[in-house]
Protein backbone atom coordinates (compact mmCIF):
# COMPACT_ATOMS: atom_id res chain seq x y z
CA UNK A 1 0.00 0.00 0.00
CA UNK A 2 1.38 3.41 -0.97
CA UNK A 3 2.54 5.64 1.88
CA UNK A 4 0.39 8.74 1.18
CA UNK A 5 1.24 11.80 3.33
CA UNK A 6 -0.88 14.94 2.98
CA UNK A 7 1.20 18.09 3.34
CA UNK A 8 0.24 20.18 6.36
CA UNK A 9 3.59 21.81 7.20
CA UNK A 10 5.03 23.55 4.13
CA UNK A 11 8.32 24.16 5.96
CA UNK A 12 8.90 20.48 6.76
CA UNK A 13 12.57 19.67 6.01
CA UNK A 14 11.64 16.50 4.11
CA UNK A 15 10.12 18.75 1.44
CA UNK A 16 13.36 20.70 0.92
CA UNK A 17 14.44 18.43 -1.91
CA UNK A 18 11.36 19.41 -3.92
CA UNK A 19 10.99 23.06 -2.95
CA UNK A 20 14.06 24.75 -1.54
CA UNK A 21 17.30 23.11 -2.71
CA UNK A 22 19.07 24.53 -5.76
CA UNK A 23 20.31 22.35 -8.60
CA UNK A 24 23.87 22.64 -7.27
CA UNK A 25 22.73 21.61 -3.80
CA UNK A 26 20.93 18.61 -5.26
CA UNK A 27 24.05 17.70 -7.22
CA UNK A 28 26.06 17.66 -3.95
CA UNK A 29 29.54 17.95 -5.45
CA UNK A 30 31.21 17.35 -2.06
CA UNK A 31 29.40 14.03 -1.52
CA UNK A 32 28.29 12.92 -5.02
CA UNK A 33 27.09 9.56 -3.72
CA UNK A 34 24.36 11.49 -1.87
CA UNK A 35 23.33 13.50 -4.92
CA UNK A 36 19.67 13.76 -5.90
CA UNK A 37 17.86 14.73 -9.09
CA UNK A 38 14.20 15.51 -9.74
CA UNK A 39 12.27 13.61 -12.43
CA UNK A 40 8.96 15.10 -13.53
CA UNK A 41 5.89 13.30 -14.96
CA UNK A 42 5.10 9.57 -14.87
CA UNK A 43 6.63 8.91 -18.32
CA UNK A 44 9.97 10.45 -17.39
CA UNK A 45 9.98 8.74 -13.99
CA UNK A 46 9.32 5.39 -15.67
CA UNK A 47 12.27 5.95 -18.01
CA UNK A 48 14.49 6.74 -15.04
CA UNK A 49 13.32 3.62 -13.20
CA UNK A 50 13.89 1.49 -16.31
CA UNK A 51 17.46 2.80 -16.41
CA UNK A 52 18.02 1.58 -12.84
CA UNK A 53 17.67 4.87 -10.97
CA UNK A 54 16.45 4.55 -7.38
CA UNK A 55 13.61 6.74 -6.08
CA UNK A 56 13.78 8.47 -2.70
CA UNK A 57 10.39 10.22 -2.41
CA UNK A 58 7.42 11.36 -4.47
CA UNK A 59 5.43 14.59 -4.67
CA UNK A 60 2.05 14.28 -6.36
CA UNK A 61 -1.03 16.38 -6.98
CA UNK A 62 -3.76 15.10 -4.68
CA UNK A 63 -6.26 14.40 -7.44
CA UNK A 64 -3.69 12.53 -9.53
CA UNK A 65 -2.66 9.80 -7.09
CA UNK A 66 -4.31 7.25 -9.34
CA UNK A 67 -3.81 5.70 -12.76
CA UNK A 68 -0.20 5.71 -13.97
CA UNK A 69 0.87 7.72 -10.92
CA UNK A 70 -0.60 5.09 -8.61
CA UNK A 71 1.04 2.29 -10.60
CA UNK A 72 4.42 3.83 -9.88
CA UNK A 73 4.04 4.72 -6.19
CA UNK A 74 2.46 1.41 -5.16
CA UNK A 75 5.68 -0.34 -6.27
CA UNK A 76 7.50 1.54 -3.50
CA UNK A 77 5.30 1.27 -0.39
CA UNK A 78 8.22 2.15 1.88
CA UNK A 79 8.68 5.59 0.30
CA UNK A 80 6.75 8.76 1.21
CA UNK A 81 4.27 10.16 -1.32
CA UNK A 82 3.65 13.78 -0.33
CA UNK A 83 0.40 15.20 -1.70
CA UNK A 84 -1.49 18.50 -1.82
CA UNK A 85 -3.85 20.31 -4.17
CA UNK A 86 -2.49 21.53 -7.50
CA UNK A 87 -2.48 25.21 -6.49
CA UNK A 88 -0.56 24.44 -3.32
CA UNK A 89 2.10 22.39 -5.10
CA UNK A 90 2.52 25.02 -7.82
CA UNK A 91 3.08 27.68 -5.17
CA UNK A 92 5.49 25.47 -3.22
CA UNK A 93 7.64 24.45 -6.17
CA UNK A 94 7.37 27.64 -8.21
CA UNK A 95 6.15 25.93 -11.38
CA UNK A 96 3.30 23.79 -12.65
CA UNK A 97 3.95 20.08 -12.32
CA UNK A 98 3.84 18.21 -15.60
CA UNK A 99 1.08 15.62 -15.20
CA UNK A 100 1.07 16.31 -11.48
CA UNK A 101 4.04 14.29 -10.26
CA UNK A 102 7.67 14.69 -9.18
CA UNK A 103 10.09 12.07 -7.96
CA UNK A 104 13.31 12.71 -6.06
CA UNK A 105 15.82 10.07 -7.18
CA UNK A 106 19.38 9.16 -6.27
CA UNK A 107 21.94 10.05 -8.90
CA UNK A 108 23.43 7.02 -10.63
CA UNK A 109 27.18 6.36 -10.48
CA UNK A 110 28.97 8.34 -13.18
CA UNK A 111 30.21 6.51 -16.28
CA UNK A 112 33.56 6.87 -18.00
CA UNK A 113 34.20 7.82 -21.61
CA UNK A 114 35.39 4.27 -22.25
CA UNK A 115 32.17 2.80 -20.89
CA UNK A 116 29.81 4.91 -22.97
CA UNK A 117 31.93 4.63 -26.12
CA UNK A 118 32.09 0.84 -26.02
CA UNK A 119 30.32 -0.55 -29.06
CA UNK A 120 29.32 2.94 -30.23
CA UNK A 121 29.38 4.05 -33.86
CA UNK A 122 28.33 7.67 -33.42
CA UNK A 123 29.16 9.94 -30.47
CA UNK A 124 28.03 13.50 -29.74
CA UNK A 125 30.53 15.62 -27.82
CA UNK A 126 29.22 18.79 -26.16
CA UNK A 127 31.80 21.50 -25.46
CA UNK A 128 30.72 23.99 -22.77
CA UNK A 129 27.00 23.87 -23.61
CA UNK A 130 25.70 25.65 -20.53
CA UNK A 131 21.98 25.98 -21.17
CA UNK A 132 20.08 22.98 -19.70
CA UNK A 133 17.30 23.47 -22.24
CA UNK A 134 19.79 23.00 -25.07
CA UNK A 135 21.36 19.99 -23.35
CA UNK A 136 17.94 18.38 -22.97
CA UNK A 137 16.99 19.09 -26.58
CA UNK A 138 20.28 17.65 -27.84
CA UNK A 139 19.70 14.45 -25.87
CA UNK A 140 16.21 14.09 -27.30
CA UNK A 141 17.56 14.46 -30.84
CA UNK A 142 20.40 12.06 -30.07
CA UNK A 143 17.96 9.40 -28.91
CA UNK A 144 15.70 9.86 -31.92
CA UNK A 145 18.43 10.04 -34.57
CA UNK A 146 20.78 7.12 -33.90
CA UNK A 147 23.45 8.73 -31.74
CA UNK A 148 24.87 6.06 -29.43
CA UNK A 149 26.23 8.16 -26.57
CA UNK A 150 26.89 11.74 -25.43
CA UNK A 151 30.08 13.05 -23.83
CA UNK A 152 30.17 16.44 -22.10
CA UNK A 153 33.11 18.67 -21.19
CA UNK A 154 33.27 19.68 -17.50
CA UNK A 155 31.68 23.12 -17.95
CA UNK A 156 28.52 21.78 -19.62
CA UNK A 157 25.19 21.90 -17.85
CA UNK A 158 24.45 18.62 -16.09
CA UNK A 159 21.99 16.37 -17.98
CA UNK A 160 20.27 15.60 -14.67
CA UNK A 161 19.22 19.18 -14.01
CA UNK A 162 15.43 19.21 -13.82
CA UNK A 163 14.94 21.31 -16.94
CA UNK A 164 17.34 19.22 -19.01
CA UNK A 165 15.50 16.05 -17.96
CA UNK A 166 12.14 17.63 -18.71
CA UNK A 167 13.09 18.95 -22.16
CA UNK A 168 14.73 15.65 -23.08
CA UNK A 169 11.50 13.80 -22.16
CA UNK A 170 13.62 11.44 -20.09
CA UNK A 171 15.94 10.42 -22.92
CA UNK A 172 18.88 11.38 -20.66
CA UNK A 173 18.14 7.99 -19.08
CA UNK A 174 18.15 6.15 -22.39
CA UNK A 175 21.32 7.52 -23.99
CA UNK A 176 24.59 6.65 -22.22
CA UNK A 177 26.58 9.74 -21.26
CA UNK A 178 29.71 10.76 -19.41
CA UNK A 179 31.65 13.86 -18.50
CA UNK A 180 35.23 14.34 -19.62
CA UNK A 181 37.36 13.83 -16.52
CA UNK A 182 38.52 17.18 -15.14
CA UNK A 183 42.04 15.77 -14.94
CA UNK A 184 41.95 15.15 -18.70
CA UNK A 185 42.64 18.48 -20.40
CA UNK A 186 40.19 19.49 -23.10
CA UNK A 187 40.59 19.58 -26.03
CA UNK A 188 44.16 18.27 -26.25
CA UNK A 189 43.97 15.09 -24.18
CA UNK A 190 40.20 14.68 -24.61
CA UNK A 191 40.34 14.57 -28.41
CA UNK A 192 43.35 12.23 -28.21
CA UNK A 193 41.29 9.95 -25.97
CA UNK A 194 38.50 9.79 -28.57
CA UNK A 195 41.00 8.97 -31.30
CA UNK A 196 42.62 6.28 -29.15
CA UNK A 197 39.19 4.64 -28.92
CA UNK A 198 39.05 4.45 -32.71
CA UNK A 199 36.91 7.52 -33.44
CA UNK A 200 37.53 10.06 -36.15
CA UNK A 201 36.58 13.51 -34.89
CA UNK A 202 34.46 16.13 -36.61
CA UNK A 203 34.08 19.72 -35.39
CA UNK A 204 30.78 21.34 -36.35
CA UNK A 205 31.93 24.87 -37.16
CA UNK A 206 32.05 27.58 -39.81
CA UNK A 207 35.39 27.48 -41.57
CA UNK A 208 36.80 28.08 -45.05
CA UNK A 209 38.22 24.55 -45.16
CA UNK A 210 35.11 22.78 -43.82
CA UNK A 211 33.33 19.94 -45.60
CA UNK A 212 29.58 19.69 -46.03
CA UNK A 213 27.61 17.62 -43.56
CA UNK A 214 26.69 15.23 -46.40
CA UNK A 215 30.29 14.70 -47.57
CA UNK A 216 30.55 11.01 -48.66
CA UNK A 217 33.90 10.46 -46.92
CA UNK A 218 32.58 11.86 -43.66
CA UNK A 219 29.43 9.77 -43.83
CA UNK A 220 31.39 6.60 -44.55
CA UNK A 221 33.47 6.83 -41.35
CA UNK A 222 32.87 3.70 -39.29
CA UNK A 223 33.26 5.50 -35.95
CA UNK A 224 32.69 9.24 -35.74
CA UNK A 225 32.61 11.70 -32.84
CA UNK A 226 30.74 14.90 -33.71
CA UNK A 227 31.77 17.86 -31.54
CA UNK A 228 29.34 20.74 -30.93
CA UNK A 229 30.25 24.02 -29.29
CA UNK A 230 28.85 26.40 -26.75
CA UNK A 231 25.98 28.77 -27.43
CA UNK A 232 27.13 31.95 -29.15
CA UNK A 233 30.87 31.43 -29.49
CA UNK A 234 30.81 27.91 -30.88
CA UNK A 235 33.84 25.63 -30.65
CA UNK A 236 37.22 26.75 -29.41
CA UNK A 237 39.85 27.21 -32.12
CA UNK A 238 42.06 24.63 -30.43
CA UNK A 239 39.25 22.06 -30.62
CA UNK A 240 38.71 22.70 -34.32
CA UNK A 241 42.46 22.41 -34.97
CA UNK A 242 42.66 19.05 -33.17
CA UNK A 243 39.81 17.43 -35.14
CA UNK A 244 40.09 15.33 -38.28
CA UNK A 245 37.25 17.20 -40.00
CA UNK A 246 35.63 20.60 -39.80
CA UNK A 247 31.99 20.23 -40.81
CA UNK A 248 29.40 22.79 -41.81
CA UNK A 249 25.67 22.67 -42.44
CA UNK A 250 24.80 24.43 -45.74
CA UNK A 251 22.67 27.54 -45.12
CA UNK A 252 20.45 29.81 -47.19
CA UNK A 253 19.00 33.34 -46.99
CA UNK A 254 22.19 34.69 -45.48
CA UNK A 255 21.80 32.75 -42.23
CA UNK A 256 25.26 31.94 -40.88
CA UNK A 257 24.47 29.48 -38.10
CA UNK A 258 21.83 27.61 -36.11
CA UNK A 259 21.19 27.28 -32.40
CA UNK A 260 23.30 24.41 -31.09
CA UNK A 261 20.23 22.26 -30.38
CA UNK A 262 18.84 22.80 -33.89
CA UNK A 263 22.24 22.19 -35.46
CA UNK A 264 22.60 18.96 -33.51
CA UNK A 265 19.31 17.63 -34.87
CA UNK A 266 20.34 18.33 -38.47
CA UNK A 267 23.78 16.79 -37.98
CA UNK A 268 22.47 13.74 -36.13
CA UNK A 269 19.89 13.05 -38.83
CA UNK A 270 22.54 13.18 -41.55
CA UNK A 271 25.38 11.37 -39.81
CA UNK A 272 23.41 8.98 -37.66
CA UNK A 273 21.69 7.21 -40.52
CA UNK A 274 22.22 3.47 -40.55
CA UNK A 275 24.44 2.01 -43.22
TrEMBL record:
CDD domains: SpoU-like_rRNA-MTase. The keyword Secreted does not apply. One of its GO terms (biological process) is methylation. GO terms for molecular function: RNA binding; RNA methyltransferase activity. Keywords: Methyltransferase, Transferase. SUPFAM superfamilies: alpha/beta knot, L30e-like. Residues 124-268 form the tRNA/rRNA methyltransferase SpoU type domain. The keyword Methyltransferase applies. It comes from the Bacteria. InterPro entries: Alpha/beta_knot_MTases, Ribosomal_eL30-like_sf, rRNA_Methyltransferase, SpoU_MeTrfase, tRNA_m1G_MTases_N. PANTHER family: RRNA METHYLASE, RRNA METHYLTRANSFERASE 3. This is RNA methyltransferase. It comes from Fusicatenibacter faecihominis.
Amino acid sequence: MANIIEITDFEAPELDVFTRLTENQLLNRHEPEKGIFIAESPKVIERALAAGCRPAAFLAEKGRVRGETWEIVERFPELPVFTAEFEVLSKMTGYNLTRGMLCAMYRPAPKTIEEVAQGARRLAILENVVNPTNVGAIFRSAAALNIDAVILTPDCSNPLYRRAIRVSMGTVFQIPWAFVDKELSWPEEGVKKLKSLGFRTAALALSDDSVSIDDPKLMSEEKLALILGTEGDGLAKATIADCDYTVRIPMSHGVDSLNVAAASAVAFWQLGRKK
